[in-house]
Amino acid sequence: MKVIDHIKNAERTLFTLELLPPLKGETIETIYQAIDPLIGFSPSYINVTYHREEVVYKPQSNGLLERQVVRKRPSTVAIASAIRFKYGIDVVPHMICGGFSPRETEDGLIDLHFLGIDNVLALRGDAPRQDKSFVASKGGHIHATDLVKQISRLNKGIYLEEELLQPSPTNFCVGVAGYPEKHGESPNLETDLRYLKEKVDAGADYIVTQLFYDNSKFFAFVEKCRQIGITVPIIPGIKPISVKNHLTILPKTFNIDIPEDLVTAVDACKDNSMVREVGVEWAIQQTKELMQFGVPAIHFYTMGKPDNICKIAKAIF
């Protein structure tokens, strides 16, 4: 079932989650161990992230360094298919621009279509660690809007190979990312909202937001979206704070503010086990308020660690 249909048919706020693929060399059991404790809360769908290639430099016998491109995490397509097969739950694999040509993107979408997976989250993706800014692959998409347009064309049966005879259209439900506190590369929130509307106008069916800790910023974001004509569902993304250094890492990584009350509570913790409890309690209160606001779903960023999400879900769902 498509995400948009889950939302339309829901009688309550949906519980959804996002998983990080295991590192290469680990097994699929790593994924199952992250999902099993949460199955009892009936997640409507599960997102599976994708991470682009990285560059490593390996010393050679001649003393020089050899540049090698590696993918440190297995295929999202394979992981999404395994989850759907084992649990019978809808999956939302992420598709990114970085590291892919349009033809490689089309091949990935065709694989998903053959597997009966009809949801994707279209993202530009981050720059590799070794690069200061995002650079598309040769001939690849520069913006998520371009990726959404390609998926929308496939949904109309328009493939890159124009000579195909009677090509079948795909049937993807397309999600995109929104940033209540703006994307880190946008000059201001208004410009970022304009880019978001372009993604929706290109064919996006819903928006899921970057993590945030101040609900007032989400409420203001939704209002501004509606004012400029964005009418699709907007799903808040939640990630509970779990360690002290999140106070410095998260604002830098995700371009967000952390409310002073939460900072004070975390600073008062003697260890990270106490921080984890503070993070759970904050997320519970945050989620309750979001549900009162009428959000269609709550999307939890689990990072493969389900214990704190379980505590939140027990209190809410």
- Sum up the overall morphology in one term: globular
Kindly name the structural category: alpha/beta
Mean of the pLDDT scores? 91
SS element count, helices: 11
What portion of residues is helical? 25-40%
Spatial strand sequence of the major β-sheet: 1-2-5-6-7-8-9-10
- The ordered string of helix (H) and strand (E) elements is HEHEEEHEHEHEHEHEHHHEH
Stretches with pLDDT under 50, minimum 5 residues: none
* Radius of gyration computed on alpha carbons: 20 Å
Report the sheet with the most strands, covering strand number, pairing sense and barrel closure. 8 strands, parallel, barrel
Number of strands: 10
**What is the CATH class designation?**
Alpha Beta
Strand content: 15-25%
Known CATH architecture: Alpha-Beta Barrel
Provide a compact summary of the structure.
By secondary structure, the chain is α/β, with parallel strands linked by helices. 40% of the residues lie in helices and 18% in strands. The protein has a single domain (3-316), classed as TIM Barrel.
